């Protein structure tokens, strides 16, 4: 191989990078199956086949169906954090950061199948009284804490009303997103862009500091 060829040859991925890629492929395959066919469809056999790997690899990586769903929850949270960082939400005022977070979430809900799979899995875990309810409760707590932090930031910078209780207001924002997400699962024809606009206007009026 010439020096010129070596210069332009793609760098060989490390073992950690290959593992991260295979994990991501397995999780996305699970998300697609759940969104398309329901919670019970995400078997290791189907997940491995769709991702282009063996059933054994999915079992080895996640151990159980619950382990797979817990990993999917973590992946979706990490994905949400990446989207927020890409929009530089941390540089916005408290109120604008809340609105931008809601906007990014709802646009992602409309465009990415993986997000819809979260709520299908949530419904399945509640219906079957699965121990995964604990994992989903922790996930919702994590989202609530994120909004609570932004509400408190807004109260400090003067963009969010001081008479609001940050904890309960954060729960309200999270519950709004949960309700919209569930509605879109029940009725895929829901006009999400219009709902998104209405949600943003409502939150601006209900959270914003008086002028």
From TrEMBL:
<protein>
    <submittedName>
        <fullName>TetR family transcriptional regulator</fullName>
    </submittedName>
</protein>
<dbReference type="GO" id="GO:0003700">
    <property type="term" value="F:DNA-binding transcription factor activity"/>
</dbReference>
<dbReference type="Pfam" id="PF00440">
    <property type="entry name" value="TetR_N"/>
</dbReference>
<keyword id="KW-0804">Transcription</keyword>
<dbReference type="Pfam" id="PF13977">
    <property type="entry name" value="TetR_C_6"/>
</dbReference>
<feature type="domain" description="HTH tetR-type">
    <location>
        <begin position="20"/>
        <end position="80"/>
    </location>
</feature>
<dbReference type="InterPro" id="IPR050109">
    <property type="entry name" value="HTH-type_TetR-like_transc_reg"/>
</dbReference>
<keyword id="KW-0678">Repressor</keyword>
<dbReference type="InterPro" id="IPR039538">
    <property type="entry name" value="BetI_C"/>
</dbReference>
<dbReference type="InterPro" id="IPR036271">
    <property type="entry name" value="Tet_transcr_reg_TetR-rel_C_sf"/>
</dbReference>
<keyword id="KW-0238">DNA-binding</keyword>
<keyword id="KW-0805">Transcription regulation</keyword>
<dbReference type="GO" id="GO:0000976">
    <property type="term" value="F:transcription cis-regulatory region binding"/>
</dbReference>
<dbReference type="InterPro" id="IPR009057">
    <property type="entry name" value="Homeodomain-like_sf"/>
</dbReference>
<dbReference type="InterPro" id="IPR001647">
    <property type="entry name" value="HTH_TetR"/>
</dbReference>
<feature type="DNA-binding region" description="H-T-H motif">
    <location>
        <begin position="43"/>
        <end position="62"/>
    </location>
</feature>
